[in-house]
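Protein in question quoted for reference:
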Amino acid sequence: MLLPKNIQKAMAEGEDLLAIKLLFELMDKTSRHDDLWWHAASLVVQLAAKNQNTEANFAVLKAIDEAQVVTKKYLEKDHQFHIYMGLAVLYEKSGEPQKSLEYTEKALPLYYQLNAEEQDYELMSSFAFLCITREFYDDAEKIIKLYLPKAKSESPNRMHRRLMAIDLLLQVYEKQKKGELANRLKTDYFSEQVREFLDQKPYYSRERPQIDDWGRDDFTYFIDNAHYNTLASLTTIDGIKEKLSMLNAQFSVARRSGELFTSTMIRKKYGDVDLSTFQLSNEERMEMFFFMRTHASLLGACTLGLAGQIAESYAMMRLAIENSLYAYKLASDEDTKAIWLARKSDDQQSRSAVTKAFRQKAIMETLSTEQPELEAEIHKLYELTIDEGAHPNANTFFKHSVQRNEPGALAFGLNYQDTDYIEPCVEHIVSTGDACLKLFRHIYRHWLW
């Protein structure tokens, strides 16, 4: 049904209050027996509910409420649904829960009669949330599940809708105390996303630049040998490529979930902003960056470990653990965000404040009270990284070095690329990555499942 261009323009530009005014003017000129009147009325209700403009419009909306009783036969189901839903929201906001309950009950059967195209994300989420508020949990669950198959076909820039729909369903399960269903939903969704990531088309091979005299000097020989060791490890050690690919996929999928969640939170906080140009503050992007630094450290551990640089790989594993522990501290103590951001390399006071706020022993003690098994797992891995080279120690020094006596001279040797220890090193990378993911799931359970 075609609306006047001035109304279409106001709605397209987000001028909701102007659109409401113009719609009222249209309704004044139109018979209540005309479907256009009801179309305008349903839009007024939706816009008023969206903008919480209840005081200015509530009298008119009540008039719509009364009018539909006597002219109900003229009302198309989609218009009728929108009016019922809008009134339910407005009565809820105005402190009349009984009237809100009444109109929610009227709207429910009409929602199921809408066609699939009309059951879009905005309508689904608004109505599902209303049902949750009214404690119609079974209907909320049904409404969300009707939308989820459609969510898979959303365009890439709208994929956050699927994540938020699942989050809404988790809220329903929480209200119903269906913990087992909630856990299964989280696991199934995350596993599905990981499978989709692993099934993506392979990256195109790039043409490798050619370097004259490659491998004929000590440095380029070392680099070439590292590449050879990496390929040899991935092809000869059973299951190693699959394990590391899975770990990377889990972090990549979790990162995407975090990006979608952050995008949704930014829209809620700032309105319908252009995310292609929007700049987050340092504090707003902290969560994601500590997560990505952990992922990057683990990838660094893979690069070094597969090449045979064993001790150096353990140093990167330690860095991954420390990044995740810093993230835990920042998430559990909001005051530390300002302390961490204020650190300056030439300011001893700010550096000392960070040292004091992020003492690892204190962080681990806090974690042990919340997640004792996870704390024990991380502590064991952290000590392992130190023993294997993250800190200078005798065990690592002498494991990878030798002294050779030559005629009239001493010669010292260090196995810079020790292929004998690649397999256990990679197993420890996977264990470290798993432990870090568990910690991030504890920290960011609102978006990382």
